[in-house]
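PROTOCOL LOG
Step 1. Enter all chains and additional molecules of the complex.
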Amino acid sequence: MTGVLTQLAANPYPLYAQLRKLPNPGPNLVSHAEVREALNHPDLVVDKLNDLRRVLPAELADGALARTLRSILAFQEGDGHRRLRRVLAKRLVGKQIDGQRDTIERFTAELLDEVGGEGDVVRELAYPLPARVISNLLGIEWSHVDKLLAWSDTLVRIMSAGTIEPATAVVWEQQMADMRDLVSQLCSDRRREPRDDLISSLLEMGDETLSFDELAANVLFMVTAGHETSTDLLASGILTLLRHPSQLAALRADPSLIDGAVEEVFRYESPLQNVGRVPRVDVTIGGRVLREGRLVNLLIGAANRDPAVFEDPDTFDITRDPNPHLGFGFGAHFCLGAGLARLEARVALPMVLARFPRLELAEHDVPWRSAPGFRGPARVPVRWT
Ligand code: HEM
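Step 2. Run joint prediction.
Step 3. Record the structure below.
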């Protein structure tokens, strides 16, 4: 079984191609048209949270873990979702994000100052950069970041867990309680002395102030959403460019191609390959009935390689235009961090290429992370030259 999962993690695209040929690919939506329609469908809802709450031990039904899961934006629907999304969007889209360019440049330069000889793009750049950017934006001191990243890993495990063993639930409950203590401390600090950061501004939203449950859960969720996927994107970006020398040469020759190159990485190696939805009534998509209450997998990674929409979908082409990939989702839950993720890649990738004109892979077979639904290399060994 592990062998199959490892193979799938290394290269899911042959499986997607097989699924695409089946008249009924089970609980999976595979084509671009179906995935897009499903992402935008009001009766296909984000329901992992409710699944999980059913399996939490009764004594934890109102504990830190349950409250965290209940309050995360990505698991909400309807008016509650719209209100929370509006509040968070005020600091995550538009001018607020454009202002992060200098910070991203500074952090990238600091990290690149430290590399040399043989190294690993993931460990030295792709992992620490998004973590620094999102913690800085939120206003979390560097000394707390390791703890938050560990809790964020726990959150990913919680979100992809089918059932939770009671002993594990107790450990996770304690971690979420510790996380809430830290956020509570940060909130008291910022109330006393506001700063130019997201936590301060979330505390100052007047009528739209968030409850403490909402604030704590979404601070953690933004750390999670803001670093795992961006790490994968940066690492896949460098790996894919190094594996496609003509595309890399074209980008080096004309740096104005960077925006298209970044979009093509989002399409070609989508960091989030799969998102779940549950039909709240029977729903028909692509002529198939999706039954009420049964989990459906929206295979973003497959949709982004759909030959009906993308010419030569398995070709990495940084000049592809149009490129209507679904890498950030679509519709009501469209990624709130898309602007930030794009900016990080548009700033960091050219800086790497400019500093290291002969950058090359030190190993050609790289291992891929095996977290279900995510896609990114576990390591990208390079010679920083
Ligand atoms: C490479 C980077 C990223 C990728 C590929 C990505 C992808 C996605 C996708 C596909 C969704 C939709 C999930 C669904 O429909 O169920 C999503 C939602 C979300 N993302 Fe991102 N994301 C990235 C970076 C970020 C960053 C940097 C942040 C935060 C600053 C962020 C915050 C969010 C939030 C808050 C949501 C939930 C939106 C909602 O439910 O209304 N993401 N992301």
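Step 4. Note key features.
Strands lie at 28-29, 44-45, 117-120, 274-279, 283-285, 288-290, 296-299, 360-361, 381-384.
The chain has 18 helices and nine strands.
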